[in-house]
TrEMBL record:
Residues 1-103 form the PHD-type domain. SUPFAM superfamilies: FYVE/PHD zinc finger, Hect, E3 ligase catalytic domain. GO terms for molecular function: ubiquitin-protein transferase activity; zinc ion binding. GO terms for cellular component: nucleus. SMART domains: PHD. Keywords: Metal-binding, Zinc, Zinc-finger. This is G2/M-phase specific E3 ubiquitin protein ligase.
Length: 652
């Protein structure tokens, strides 16, 4: 309530920390180790003498030292009396205080429905949504309301580094607003981090025999350093153990799996290597799918198949973190669509390239997951009951965070509305119907209704959803449509999606990604919302500078080839060629040793960054030469890669 109480016996002086900070006539003129927190003893005594002549506005006794910061206001109080009289003391800057008549206040967000029942987001008791001295709200999400005493206790517990909104997780704006409203935030770590040996149990190793019949004379808790009665822990979960003798294991057995893990891995748990094991990993699952591609993740087990297995096994040493997370978190991604089967060499590249390829495949599958809806490049969260039951929103957020931290591709498919709902950027900007997923909701039909009768007809068809959203009200004119649409947009994008958004945010907190994005939301907006540059014929053409031969005879033959080249790029872009712009770029910038060919075929000279075009008399001959040789070279690269003839640098 009043801060730390400090007593100086030699000066016969006691003072509360908050009383010292908020007193009008004393300032911190010394160093931190001088006097009391930098306040000199003589200054404190002088302030005590000054306040002894002033009468408290609350208790009417002498000794009032806290005054309203407005010069025209003469109200003075003791600090404890000020709390009772609803004075607001700001613990920042010069530590000003304000009486109830001049204290700062909060304002309601336009369009916020305060008729809905609300509860304190900290103590969860019911709360009246009326802003006052004892009722505060979050300035970012406007949906998190709390008691002043509750948020003050949270600030004392969380400290400066962990104090944030319990609903939207905003930290910067939330702390600034709470300081303005008189909440004291101690500049220290969280209380649970300061507790001695708070996490000591995490260092304890499970040492107990869980066999049905323990054969050890010293009991099931006895564990020898070696031999028959050494407790061997389950290598998958680590939460079960057994003596070698009690489970009929051999004397040199070190790998053992408990009954639960054995059943979860179809009886083959002993084949699963731990994350600290060697390069060989056989990851098994009870689920099987007919396709050879795709990623199947089930609780505490991982199944990789097809090209996923190749990429994952090649980057095993770099993705130990990923394997560990898959085994401990237990993601539910079995409903991901299969990946298109791309031809891959039998021997994948080095671990960095395989890791990059694996994360690229992972990002493609996440984008097609059932938790997202909408067009490519602008997806919103979809409400899926099965995904909620399986906690898929958390798992997808976790995997996105892992991919970003460990060098995966940018996300690039979030809509601006989804990014704003997650990270409140741009801040306090209202959402409208254009932010909703197109062609998925009747709200668009409401906005397109041209007459009152048509509007009522649309509302009558969807009355159940309107009832659920609290918007099933009589409409007497088209002017009321705008307010109806605002309420529907707020309910559809924010209110009904609170739980998916919350779990998705918690998943993104993996490895601190969510916190970093909130610190720099404008910078990360391009990572989450703007897809990578689309390869076009114009961009490919701009990569090269045309150099003609100096001989006049050759120059006349080469001039038409420039037109052929540009026309060929356009056909590659629109799909009228058997090779794509990506194939052409890979051929043009590769550094592989190519076949010796004549001047009728294109040649890549990566060392000099040159592309020698075939000189032909017609466009068809030019196109045929480009397609034929580019395809042959790319096939040769794959074959040489398969035989370990090329390095990763050559491939890139």
């Amino acid at each position: 309530m009043f801060g730390e109480k400090v007593t100086l016996k030699e000066h016969k002086l006691s003072v509360h920390y908050f009383c010292l900070l908020t007193s009008c006539g004393v300032y911190q003129r010394g160093e931190e180790d001088e006097g009391i927190f930098g306040f000199l003893v003589e200054d404190i005594k002088q302030e005590a003498r000054r306040s002894a002549r002033l009468t408290c506005f609350g208790c009417k006794k002498k000794g009032a030292c806290v005054g309203c910061n407005v010069r025209s206001c003469r109200k003075m109080v003791h600090f404890p009396c000020g709390r009772k009289q609803m004075f607001v003391s700001q613990f920042t800057g010069l530590f000003p205080s304000y009486c109830p008549d001049h204290s700062p206040s909060q304002s309601l967000c336009t369009g916020l429905d305060i008729s809905l029942p609300r509860s304190c987001s900290i103590c969860l008791d019911s709360i009246d949504p009326v802003l006052s001295y004892s009722i505060l709200k979050c300035p970012s999400c406007h949906t998190s309301w709390f008691h002043r005493d509750c948020v003050q206790r949270q600030a004392h517990s969380a400290g400066l580094f962990f104090f944030r909104c319990t609903l939207c997780n905003n930290k910067e704006n939330f702390q600034e607003e709470m300081l303005r409203m008189g909440i004291y935030i101690p500049e220290r770590d969280a209380s649970w981090e300061l507790e001695a040996n708070a996490y000591a149990e995490l260092l304890e190793v499970y040492k107990r025999c869980d066999a049905l019949t323990c054969l050890c004379n010293n009991g099931c808790t006895h564990s020898a350093k070696s031999g028959w009665f050494e407790v061997i822990r389950c290598r998958l979960c680590g939460s079960r153990g057994t003596h070698r003798k009690c489970s009929g294991l051999k004397l040199d057995t070190k790998d053992w799996a408990c009954t639960d893990c054995t059943q979860a891995t179809d009886g083959k748990a002993s084949l699963v290597r731990s994350p600290q094991g060697g390069p060989r990993r056989s990851l098994l699952s009870k689920r099987h799918r007919p396709s050879s591609g795709g990623l199947i993740l089930t609780p505490h087990k991982l199944c990789l198949s097809g090209q996923w297995r190749k990429a994952f096994l090649s980057c095993a040493c770099c993705l130990d973190f990923l394997l560990f997370v898959f085994f401990t978190v237990g993601c539910y991604l079995s409903r991901f669509k299969d990946i298109d089967q791309t031809p891959l060499p039998n021997n994948l590249w080095d671990s960095d390239t395989a890791k990059e390829y694996f994360l690229k495949l992972l990002m493609q599958q996440i984008q097609e997951c059932v938790v997202f809806e909408g067009p490519d490049g602008s997806k919103n969260l979809a409400l899926d009951s099965e995904a909620l039951r399986e906690d898929l929103y958390f798992d997808v957020g976790c995997l996105l965070a892992l991919s970003l931290v460990h060098g995966g591709p940018p996300v690039g498919f979030f809509s601006r509305a989804l990014y704003q709902c997650l990270f409140n950027y741009p801040a306090n900007r209202p959402l409208n119907v254009t932010h909703m997923t197109p062609d998925t909701h009747f709200t668009h039909q409401i906005t397109e209704a041209e007459s009152l009768e048509e509007l009522k007809e649309v509302m009558a068809v969807s009355w159940e959803y309107l009832e659920l959203a609290g918007c099933n009200r009589p409409i007497s004119s088209l002017k009321e449509r705008e307010a109806l649409v605002e309420d529907l947009v707020s309910f559809t994008i924010i209110t009904r999606m609170q739980l998916p958004l919350q779990r998705f945010r918690e998943g993104l907190q993996t490895l601190g990604v969510f916190d970093q994005v909130q610190l720099f939301p404008s910078v990360f907006c391009g990572v989450f919302c703007e897809a990578g540059d689309h390869l076009t014929a114009q961009k490919i053409g701009q990569l090269f500078t045309i150099n003609f031969s100096e001989q006049e005879v050759k120059l006349k033959r080469e001039t038409p080839v420039v037109t052929f080249w540009r026309h060929f790029l356009l056909e590659c872009e629109v799909g009228r060629s058997s090779i794509s712009l990506q194939d052409l770029l890979r051929f043009a910038t590769g550094s592989a040793k190519l076949l010796a060919v004549s001047g009728l075929f294109p040649q890549s000279e990566p060392e000099s960054k040159h592309l020698l075009l075939p000189v032909t008399s017609s466009y068809q001959a030019f196109k045929s030469s480009m397609e034929q040789y580019t395809f042959e070279v790319l096939q040769k690269i794959v074959m040489e890669l398969d035989g370990n003839c090329l390095s990763t640098k050559d491939l890139v």
